[in-house]
Amino acid sequence: MQLGLIGLGKMGANMRTRIERGGHKVVGYDPRPEVSDVASMADMVAALDAPRAVWIMVPSGEPTQQCVAELAGLLEPGDVVVDGGNSRYTDDEPHAKTLGDKGIGYLDCGVSGGVWGLENGYGLMVGGSDADVERLMPIFDALRPPGERADGFVHAGPVGAGHYAKMVHNGIEYGLMHAYGEGYALLNAEPLIVDVEGTMQAWTQGTVIRSWLLDLLVRALQEDPGLTEISDYTPDSGEGRWTVEEAIRHAVPANVISAALFARFASREKGGSPALKAVSALRNQFGGHAMQNTAGKNVGETGTPLQNPSNTAPPN
Amino acid sequence: MQLGLIGLGKMGANMRTRIERGGHKVVGYDPRPEVSDVASMADMVAALDAPRAVWIMVPSGEPTQQCVAELAGLLEPGDVVVDGGNSRYTDDEPHAKTLGDKGIGYLDCGVSGGVWGLENGYGLMVGGSDADVERLMPIFDALRPPGERADGFVHAGPVGAGHYAKMVHNGIEYGLMHAYGEGYALLNAEPLIVDVEGTMQAWTQGTVIRSWLLDLLVRALQEDPGLTEISDYTPDSGEGRWTVEEAIRHAVPANVISAALFARFASREKGGSPALKAVSALRNQFGGHAMQNTAGKNVGETGTPLQNPSNTAPPN
Amino acid sequence: MQLGLIGLGKMGANMRTRIERGGHKVVGYDPRPEVSDVASMADMVAALDAPRAVWIMVPSGEPTQQCVAELAGLLEPGDVVVDGGNSRYTDDEPHAKTLGDKGIGYLDCGVSGGVWGLENGYGLMVGGSDADVERLMPIFDALRPPGERADGFVHAGPVGAGHYAKMVHNGIEYGLMHAYGEGYALLNAEPLIVDVEGTMQAWTQGTVIRSWLLDLLVRALQEDPGLTEISDYTPDSGEGRWTVEEAIRHAVPANVISAALFARFASREKGGSPALKAVSALRNQFGGHAMQNTAGKNVGETGTPLQNPSNTAPPN
Amino acid sequence: MQLGLIGLGKMGANMRTRIERGGHKVVGYDPRPEVSDVASMADMVAALDAPRAVWIMVPSGEPTQQCVAELAGLLEPGDVVVDGGNSRYTDDEPHAKTLGDKGIGYLDCGVSGGVWGLENGYGLMVGGSDADVERLMPIFDALRPPGERADGFVHAGPVGAGHYAKMVHNGIEYGLMHAYGEGYALLNAEPLIVDVEGTMQAWTQGTVIRSWLLDLLVRALQEDPGLTEISDYTPDSGEGRWTVEEAIRHAVPANVISAALFARFASREKGGSPALKAVSALRNQFGGHAMQNTAGKNVGETGTPLQNPSNTAPPN
């Protein structure tokens, strides 16, 4: 079948290749002329036979919202739009409405697999109507991993369910990565473990904790043993935050996922953690313990303080 | 080669089968006569040609310690003992000493793979001397998964390193399982997700979070959709605790693993959490908010309290 | 001065008393005629001399929003409205706009102190313009604790700052209460501690951890030693959630406050934790470990499983 | 009464002063001659009338153990030794045995109050026999805060109970301090809060979260607004670790206290967190996301990777 594909970045370009390998025709649009098949979104729409299918693969938030708005003006009743980006699921209902008012269908599709998806296939989680899912099934089949459809593809529920599932997927991902990270840190700290990299490699087969992420971590350790080249600065791209917010909304405990998220926050605190500065200052106040100043020297160690804190003067 | 194997329980019996499939001769001893090849540990030793190799596969702590003590009296210089159970790594040095004083070698070997190891092979993490590892290599090769030796086997370091690595492996396992658990809970809480089981099955291929544990969780959900048959009561068998204790000893943050461990503790609190009873009582004290009594009724909602807390009488 | 006071519930009624003790005249309105001074909000407004000051002390969200909307229609330019409830700070800017469009001033005031505020005075955190704060200062002075104004009162910033500060205050409160709760649980678990209640009472003077909350916890333990009368079911009223959401928005790690929040969520899970059911099911799947069924019996302990998980068949 | 006091450091010197103010005679011994009353522990013992009472106030672990051993050789049946340091409670039973074998009594006493104890009195938690507690009661009464004995003093249980209670006290302290720290960090992050220090000062009266630690934090903020002079590097002195270890031993969830402990660990990681380096490397591996190198530059952003991870080659 034919597919319009908006966004030919790291993910979009690979997906285009995989879809084409599946025997489909892709008309790709990207604001960067050097990678785009057409000069405009309108040209892309014009190059497709009706009823059309258009896949949006651009950053979530405003960029995706603008695509939806523009497509609502370009497409015709009977066409279908898929948002395959990492949009927050709460954007899906408005997008479905905007398009539905024009008779245009809408699907939200969480896509997992990263840069490996081109070769391995992408895990897909889709939200929307049965009819719209059916329409796009050839594309989904081209993108998903080979083998049983149910292993790598799910029609999870109505509009929003696909991005919700992807959000939870990413939340789990935060937890998994941090669990491996804590284990790695502990192996590093223990002198008995002479071969940290080898230990983690050994875990990749036979063990209970074998996984694709572990394979990748071993690969990273082979490229940079000890991870000496990089800092611990770790961004987060939104879905971990949304997962914790959803956990709060549904009153579901999420200690593991939130710990993983907060650790990333901590890695980015400039000038150190204000919370721990407060703790350090408190230790100094009550116990006269030294604090470390910004130059790393001990300061402030005291004997008996001269006066009571203002509000808790003792009775005598 | 020949191997004496002490302990023919769930793990030991499967390992025996896999070792025999590898072309080796196993003389198994178990206190239960109906599964044992020999009547006593002494008979087992007598049935092996020197230099002997004996593998202990019994519960950690006292049972393993007793085996080591008994073997120290039965074996001869040049023999080697392997502790393949989930012993705490701090037991290894004493065991190595006890045996080494008699000229007997010692290896500690963490074994992962559970009931699936028979077919898939076991992930092995070994601590001890090069010479002792070399001696046992044929057995390790029979047990480990097929393929590259480094994927499924590691000589991690000196005595203790094998159990240390296994302990960290299990700590990671706690974190991984709980991350999936939190994601599962969140999918369950969200009405948009019509197909929870299908969503998790879809994650098993192509996605970033695919793993063997996820495969198993999908399997469990297929057997008992909604996990309606079971309670959330979850034991812990020691290695999660040790991992957190080691994290403390090495001053390594372990928020994810400890959260997973504490969640298991919480699942086993009889009569509810004392900590939250205290919180509930506090809410009642300062705000007059209702508490829930043990019968689930709201109690204690108050208006103005009659007297101040004893120690903080206001100045007026 | 005169004050209109909307909402004469647990908090409002006490505050009215304290304000009147400060020498001011309060015209109270409450939808329950038996506690209301006037028949309607309009009557309340009519009973006040211009320029008026009206204090809203009703539940946050819709009830407060409705009061603001109604007051916008009843009040005159130069009047001032204070929202003293536990509104989310994001409601403040819209409220200020609604009222400001009519020339009516707006302050948001976080009020802490619970049912004890009547006697002890209330801690107040205010957001808004200097002029509006100045106008209400006599009321604030009546409500706040005796002593230095700065100990118990702050003009924290522009509109929204008062409720933001109150939200953070409550987030801290979650963490403090749970820290005491964990300590209480640990004292209970240790047989050496013969006198749990006495130990906590001893902490109320001289120690580093003495506080008003601790005084209250001791009071609760004196009323119900062992807290045997109550369950651990603990509601949350919103501000803990908002605090964690703000921590996420600002990328500030909040491990302690979120742990306290999640523990409350866990106390309210009906039928047990889905996350731990998943963990328990996983332990059964990989290790053949028994699960506990809903009747508390061990089930599912297995020997060798009959088949591999679907997606990870080993190469052989 | 008379008291021998070993250790005249920050705590010991203040305690000596307070005990003397209570009308007692203190013979102090310290290895530093310039602060010591006597030349040796033996001289101290000789200067006291039998039956003697000797208070040890030195660092926990070996220093305290050495004092106990030396006193066992110097004292006589009927004398009593008090360990007032921050010893681990597991040291108490051995100390009691060592001394008890010579007919010497033993008490363990947790002492809280820091450098403020001289003026405010110290909170005391004591373990030991009724008779020994009775013997030392005049000293305890001199040290504890004025007012009701039960507010600031407890005989918590047999030998070990005093240090156990102090350990839990310090664990709670970790949680409390970090809760305030997180709130402080959040106030700092929010532009609406113009007056962070004033907000925290306002919390010191009337609010639910008022406490002595909050008073001290306000004091620290007045001395160094913004805490700009200090780093976030925060030591821990053992009792937080022991508290979490006890929580593990008793299977008591301690998410808040452990989060506070782990945050201190994180503040001291040199070269950044290995766990987050692993997470950052993983993000790069699966998604081609940039990592930050040790110079703070983005590196490693990739397009399609050239080869699959070793162990998860897709079927096609």
TrEMBL record, chains A, B, C, D:
Which keywords annotate this record? Gluconate utilization, Oxidoreductase
Entry annotated with the keyword Oxidoreductase = yes
Task: Give the span(s) annotated as Disordered.
Answer: 290-316
Q: Which Pfam families does the entry link to?
A: 6PGD, NAD_binding_2
| Compositional bias of kind Polar residues | 304-316
Q: Which NCBIfam families match?
A: gnd_rel (TIGR00872), PRK09599.1 (NF007161)
* Entry's family note: Belongs to the 6-phosphogluconate dehydrogenase family.
The protein here is known as: 6-phosphogluconate dehydrogenase
The organism is Gordonia jacobaea
